Amino acid sequence: MSKQDAGIGLKVLTAGGAVGAAWAARKLVTTGWKLTTGNEPPANPEDPEVEWVEAVGWALLSGAVIGLARLAASRQAAVWYSKATGTTPANLNDVSS
């Protein structure tokens, strides 16, 4: 496997893993919200009809859990890449602002 092929594979694996992790995290957060509050989460927290406390709570909870799930998926893709190629992904140390 060439480095270019491995790099493309890493991008596909990372993107797919992040999407899958975000989907699963959203399901988890939605279920947890329903169990905790007894209500459906707000469909659109920006709606003025949604109370501030509920909108902020949903934004914080869902953002944190989904962000952590995407991070975990991306990190695991880097681990798999490293094991498969014996090298760290080239763009791993790129810092975007």
Automatic annotation (TrEMBL):
Keyword set, alphabetical order: Membrane, Transmembrane, Transmembrane helix
The protein's name in its UniProt record: Uncharacterized protein DUF4235
Transmembrane region(s): 55-73
Pfam families with a match to the protein in the record: DUF4235
